[in-house]
Amino acid sequence: MNSLLLAAVGVAMILAGYFLYSKFLAEKIYALDDSIPTPAHQLEDGIDYVPTNKYVLWGHHFTSVAGAAPIVGPAIAVIWGWVPAFLWVTIGTVFFAGMHDMGALWASIRNKGQSIGALSGRYIGARGRNLFLVVIFLLLLMVNAAFSVVIANLLVSTPTAVIPTWGALLVALLVGQAIYRFNWNLPLVSVVGVVALYTLILIGDSNPLALPETMLGLPDRSVWIILLFVYAGIASMLPVWMLLQPRDYINGLQLFIALGILYVSVLIARPEIVAPAFNSSPPEGTPSIIPLLFVTIACGAISGFHGMVSSGTSSKQLDKESDARFVGYFGAVGEGLLALGSIIATTAGFATLTDWEATYNAFGQGGVVAFVQGGGAIIEQGIGLPQSLSATIMATTAILFAATTMDTGVRLQRFVVQEIGEIMGVSLGKIVATVIAVGVALALTFGAGADGSGGMLIWPLFGTTNQLMAALTLSILAIMLMRRRRSPLPALIPLVFVAFMTLYAAVIQLGTFWETQNWLLLVIDVVIIVAAVWVIVEAVSAMRTARDYPGDDDAELRELSVAQIAIGLDSPAPHEDTDAGHHHQRHRGDQPPTRD
């Protein structure tokens, strides 16, 4: 089959989901209402709560949820054949991920920007909240530790990506100042920022940088890991407008340009897909496609981490409720397109089936390396960029997205640590909570040795933990919809499917860990299964109660918004989308929206 046809059908399906299904969800299911002020206005502090232009916020949200996972998952899952991966990515994006991500945003903004973990306490109960936080903590630990290793490996293997990776931080800082301090026009800032980033890519391609193989007794990969955590810890404490927002926004534009280059190359080169549609004879040791496909491809179809970002950072920056459709659902669309690009790069980027089979000779092979090599080959064939530059673009794309996920993950982990402290009656400041979040991840990463290999130690559980988190988030959405007398089916159908497939996969993994005597993963898997099942049982009980719930949870918010608008306090000010950030500086004159 020609890859151009696959790309055209996939893109059409995903975009149809945005224009049709997301409109239905926004109007009939979530009933987004711009008359209700969002937490970004109600609780504006210039640090975490900052009303933000929807395009800038989409950049933060999309790049935070994307990371390397929508590249790695599909790039591994094609070992079962490209058809199952394609169907799960497209159908999952339209009916699972978009609904879940926009729903998590909606749920949080209707509850003062609270995280999914905090919401579980209100809608499921105290026991459910505590168990929920266990799952969240473990998931974030996996993300932060593993992504640091993924990024470090790419920086070591692709030294041409070092300059654009770290130079992007300076670009982001300047973009933040241009938008919020100097009030530059957003399209102008976007063009300048993207040009600067691609200039860094060109410079990096000509000037590869590599650390010495050993520094202070540590291998180069370990030094990169430590530097990444130092950066992530600092970034997580800075006001979102200063680094997080602009970095993610520019990275979002860069990714869409990179995807555009890849898809245009597919249009020009029209390479044939050499991988099998259904692989009837996968390598020995490859697990069953059901249920493992649905946890191998998590990000790119549906991901619990998205709900944590939606409710952890994005909900605190949403300017008005209607923006949730663009930020949440279209953020899932962007990730679906990235996952689709990964499928194409890893199935049509090889010259022959023999070449493909040489890479996919065992389960778990392929991944980012296959994406970079395959995507680079398609770009070289299509628009004629040299193989080295093509590989640098693909590697830089993967690194920047993994890094944005990591620094958002550390910020979210800090929030979780503070929530756990509150439950235990201990008030933890921002610095202390950040040190704990970074310290635990570093301990795991270096727990197995100075090479940082511990960062991947619990990665085999990422897919199942991530999907269980998605199921738990969907259960909260179903309860909230029931309380409002709206159809819960858009949440319940994905909930039942994802919960069944994920628990099935987790039980299969138990057997694997028992056979290999991997007692650490066995214990963690048991904890995750018990916590998830317990929360689901509590959620089902809460759903039964929700059917008889008196009144409408939104009534108080509507009364509050009417009173606020009447006296002119904290109501959203009208603004043009191109004037990002101008309207929310009304309390502080010309100063950036921050207090230190």
TrEMBL record:
Q: Which UniProt keywords apply?
A: Cell membrane, Membrane, Transmembrane, Transmembrane helix
Q: Name one GO biological process term.
A: cellular response to starvation
For membrane topology, the record states: Multi-pass membrane protein
Q: Where is the composition biased (Basic and acidic residues)?
A: 573-596
Transmembrane is among the record's keywords: yes
The residue ranges crossing the membrane are 6-26, 62-80, 86-109, 130-155, 161-179, 186-203, 223-244, 251-269, 289-309, 329-351, 389-410, 431-450, 456-479, 491-513, 519-537
Protein localization: Cell membrane
Query: What's one Pfam family the UniProt record gives for this protein?
Result: CstA
Which Gene Ontology cellular-component terms appear in the entry?
Answer: plasma membrane
Q: Where is this region: Disordered?
A: 570-596
Domain CstA N-terminal, residue spans? 2-347, 363-505
InterPro entries (alphabetical): CstA (IPR051605), CstA_N (IPR003706)
Q: What is its main location?
A: membrane
Q: Which family does it belong to?
A: Belongs to the peptide transporter carbon starvation (CstA) (TC 2.A.114) family.
Q: What is this protein called?
A: Carbon starvation protein
